[in-house]
């Protein structure tokens, strides 16, 4: 299904509206040369390498178990006890998730719209509220970004692009002196270097994302982003940007349409159907709506609508190292790339909030980035957790060590919900058994 940005987006808005020591000059010069040499050698490490990013936190390749079935048609269910989870632990989780405070108009408390917990490939807990059901589409907000990243991974596997290609080759508006060095990899790692302000409620009049989604940038969101100034060299500054994602959408479109022309297919049709043909239909996502802007690009930053059960299938694809029913959809290298913090963390000057997330390739991890003094995001969760996250509480957590996927859709407004507490309760539901 396709809609204009106003058909659903604006309806959503209306609803949610020491002292120095002295050294001899020769020693000073020697120390200076040594420092510059070390800095140069560090900067020449292969881009995208994870060796220095996590220091002692090793990102092990996934080794999923053999599956008894695949949920292409639908998920099967079982009892918590059958998969080593306690009834009492699930009850504590339920009590935490569904504790709305005050009236609907006040929008206070933990406002869970739907949640599904899948362990060992089986649903063990599922509940909905506020008129949502298991079949209700829900805006995933920035979880859309992780789906866009997945499609780029598929396109690279098919040879449509290479993430080390220069971005301007696919989006000519980036062919400017200060942007020409930008790679697709940089955009995936939220390190394009483009100036961006990602704020909604706190400073809407100065927000680039508000301008892009709803006002002067809404007709062509990628072009709006591409025209923005640079704050840093590509690949040297990590900063969350919905603009980067919509650039990525336009780049993906260019690659898909170029391939269609080469194979004598209708470019626009190939692009419109690409998410369905290459991903959704394969893993059994039956009901999805993804809005496009007036230029025809998917609004990959914000406007993919899914059910919790269908989103969990994407998590299952990642949990199984990119495999689905014996077919490789994503390469193991792509899964590893998804689970590795953005290399630019090492070169990004500290700013307020940088330590709040461990961003990768449009996903999040819990490894921390010790070399940049950035701690793991969720102290009560294992280091192998990775996640797709969105505004107002949308989330999908993939936990390989527990063989678990958790999807939660919500309408959180006042900061009551804690992802760390949520993950802690999931862990305790297993430990208590």
Q: How are the secondary structure elements laid out?
A:
Elements: H1 5-16, H2 25-43, E1 76-77, H3 87-97, E2 98-101, E3 108-119, E4 122-128, E5 138-139, H4 143-157, H5 184-188, H6 208-214, H7 221-226, H8 242-262, H9 267-283, E6 289-290, E7 304-306, H10 308-319, E8 323-324, E9 327-328, H11 332-338, E10 364-365, E11 386-390, E12 394-399, E13 404-410, H12 419-431
Parallel strand pairs: 1-4
Antiparallel strand pairs: 2-3, 3-4, 3-13, 5-7, 6-7, 8-9, 10-11, 11-12, 12-13
Helix pairs in contact: 3-12, 4-8, 8-9
Average of per-residue pLDDT values = 89
Q: What is the number of E strands? A: 13
Share of helical residues? 25-40%
Q: By CATH's scheme, which homologous superfamily applies? A: DD-peptidase/beta-lactamase superfamily
Structural class: alpha+beta
Structure annotation, total helices? 12
| SS strand fraction | 5-15%
Inertia-based shape: globular
Write down the CATH topology.
Beta-lactamase
**Unreliable runs:** 1-46, 49-56
Radius of gyration: 22 Å
Q: In the CATH hierarchy, what is the class?
A: Alpha Beta
User: What are the secondary-structure elements, in order, as H or E?
Assistant: HHEHEEEEHHHHHHEEHEEHEEEEH
- Largest sheet properties: 8 strands, mixed
How far apart are the first and last residues' alpha carbons, in Å? 44 Å
Q: Provide the domain count.
A: 1
- Which second-level CATH architecture applies? 3-Layer(aba) Sandwich
